[in-house]
Amino acid sequence: MKKLVYLLLAGVMAAGLTVSASADLRLVNGKIEVDAALKEAAAKYQEETGVVVNIESMGGGVNIQDELKKQYQGTGMPDIFVCGSDADFGNWDGLLADMSDCAWAADTDAGYVGTDGLVGFPYTTEAIGLAYNADILEKAGIDPASITGPESMKAAFETLDSKKDELGLTAVIGWCCEAQNLYWSTGSHSFANYLDAGLARDDTTYSDLLADGGQIDHDRFLHYAEMVGLFNQYSDPALLTSGTYDQQILGFASGKYAFVTQGSWIGATMTTDDAAQYEEAGHFKVGMIPYAFEEGIDTILTNSPSWWAVFNDDNADEAKAFLDWLAGDEGQEILVMKGGFISPFKSCSFIAEDPFAETISAYTAAGKTSAWHWLKNKASLDQNATGQLYLDYALGSIPDAETFTQVMTQVIAEYYAS
Amino acid sequence: MKAESASRKLLSLLLLVGGAAMLVVSLIMDFSRSGVPFRGALLVLGMVAVILGLYLFPTLKYHRRIIYVIFLFPLLFTFAVTVIIPLCLGIFYSFTDWTGIQYTQFVGFGNYISMFQDPQFIWSILITFVFVLLNMILVNLIAFLLALLCTNGIKGDGFFRAAYFLPNLIGGIVLGYIWQFVFNNVLINITKTSMLVQTKSAMLAIIVVYIWQYAGYIMLIYITGLTQVPKDVLEAAQIDGANATQTLFQVKIPMIASTFTICTFLTLTSAFKQFDVNLALTGGTGSVPSFMGKYLTSGTQMLALNIYNTAVSKNNYALGQAKAVLFFIILACVSLIQVRVSNSKEVEL
């Protein structure tokens, strides 16, 4: 009798261990800085529909794809998760839900189309351009619109350099080639200009060349390399080889650099973390010019930096409904006004209070934008190959633009071959 | 008595068969990715039934042995789940094109061949060996000197022991970031460019940080050894007129020879597995302009970091797994030699 009781107890314990299936949605977000805005949106959605959406934000050096793979093997997949590149989407071939039947699909061109159909929901727009401090350029008597090619850029840099003391500048440009933590800034974002600057959005000439065994167009890259050399020459030596991202943004926000080589996302940092210094420096106007390493390059690079994909399981329809709601007015209001997103949706009428929002919409309206084909680069090309070479160039162990081009060509080809 | 025994036999058989059936069904459901919610419960119930069945099994001859196995079961089970099964799976995956999610085909020894054709991997192995060799010598030397200092009866030796040991209590990642700050912001005033940007000086930086972290720990072991040298032996040496150097080299060091063996192997294995300081301090960056005809861009990437990077960053899980198998073989050899040597030393003593 006693044994039967034990058996019963063991059975109860076992039943208790069973994981109960829950209908709540899970969203894995890769931008930790918008965690609060997303949670607010989720709370509002729950209020309206009763569906609970749990936001799990990852950031700060977490390899999200690796984390997702662990969840796939173990505890189960989130219903919505972030994917940033072709390699990321490639991981989940055949496992993602096609969203071409969703209402938002007709409202944007920024969705990600993969082998399973329209699988990526775009949630923001980011821009890569040479950001400048409009007040300083004005004081120095330089019209940003006059910088249209390598010569005018060089002339502007020389002028600024000669007036450094008068303008309160530490250096002309905040350009950082540190390879351990900032490889993505040089190896992907700056490299992106070689791939896309000045080209039409659907022009894939150089990314196709790269995808074909890692080839580099010598002449175009040499011109680009000369611009990098100019940056190396005029950057803050304290920042150039061993600086940090925070140092770089803070330097620009406090008016110590006239230019900075980071994209539109620094606007959020300037108005939050660095707000005090930004105010002190006079809350100056900012803008972006193209990285004009060849005469006639007149576009900045804008794109959805990453997308949200829906895992094709029982919750897929619920997840799609939530994304539809996010793309609608109520969702967009929270994402744009609270999260600072620049909406990729045509019907959205909200504009974020971001220092760069104006310049991005001006370029977009004029049709002067190029795409981010660097997202198609082989996985971690920046971390394992290109990032280090920018540092070597900045250190002088790669002496000139021609050598930089040759080494880059060699290393990238090897990386694609391995 | 007989009736009870018969019913007990029946119950035992029922439990064994039922339990085994439940286990099989739940495992099949698991592998076919069935969404049935009670499969976990079924697995546990099956397990409990099998164990009960074994316990009730009417045998005098084997009863004791069965009880031993049942008592060992939790440990064996945990060991299998956390060590044996992953090891077998890992070796299996190294022969496939596993992506971390699924595999589509077997590639035989393809991963093993391509890893030895990769100059970066060869470089990683080389610098790991150099690192291990240098550390084995330097850590032991410095730790032993510190131990001598702290057993010399100087004032406040308790404080110094604690102070030298303290870095070992800080995790490698945190330590790496702290030292990164030191190299990039403080020492840069002396070195002009940060030590971390050139491969050679960056390797030196890793070695310095590693010694800083590990010497205190090894020092404690040497202190234990030194304080256990019998007083009468030291007194005898003193009476015979041995000076401090003679006492050290001809009495103390031979007396603690086994401590040297232990410390050598401790530093050897831990230096081989070096990962966290490497990751946090340099992240493997650094360039080697010409090695086997290639321009390498991960000059300070040691073996463990190379494996991690291959899988996680380069998204090549199968190749990373193959490298991990090699890593396992190297470490297993080192450990086996260690056990051998330590055992023979013990016999000598």
Written overview of the protein:
The complex is a heterodimer of chains A (about 425) and B (about 350). Chain A is built from 19 helices and 13 strands. With about 425 residues, chain A is of the alpha/beta class. Chain A has 2 domains: about 1-120 and about 305-345, Periplasmic binding protein-like II (D-Maltodextrin-Binding Protein, domain 2); about 130-300 and about 370-415, Periplasmic binding protein-like II (D-Maltodextrin-Binding Protein, domain 2). In chain A, a hairpin with a 2-residue loop joins strand 4 and strand 5. The longest helix of chain A has 17 residues, at about 220-235. Helices cover about 75% and strands about 0% of the residues of chain B. Chain B contains 15 helices and 2 strands. In chain B, helix 1 packs antiparallel against helix 2, helix 4 (about 110-115) packs across helix 15 (about 315-350) and helix 14 packs antiparallel against helix 15. The longest helix of chain B has about 30 residues, at about 120-150. The mean pLDDT of chain B is about 90. The interface of A and B includes residues 63, 66 and 387 of A.
Helical run tally of chain A: 19
N- and C-termini, Cα separation of chain A? 67 Å
Radius of gyration of chain B, in angstroms, nearest whole number: 28 Å
Major β-sheet strand ordering of chain A: 2-1-3-12-5-4
Pair with the most extensive interface? A-B, 46 and 39 residues
Mean pLDDT of chain A: 89
Average pLDDT metric of chain B: 89
Helix content range of the residues of chain B, please?
over 70%
Helix content of chain A: 40-55%
| Percentage of residues in strands of chain B | under 5%
Strand content of chain A: 5-15%
Number of domains of chain A: 2
Q: Detail the poorly predicted runs of chain B.
A: none
CATH first level of the largest domain in chain A: Alpha Beta
According to DSSP, the number of beta strands of chain A is: 13
Shape descriptor of chain B: flat
Structural class of chain B: mainly alpha
Question: So what's the overall shape of chain A?
Answer: globular
Radius of gyration of chain A: 24 Å
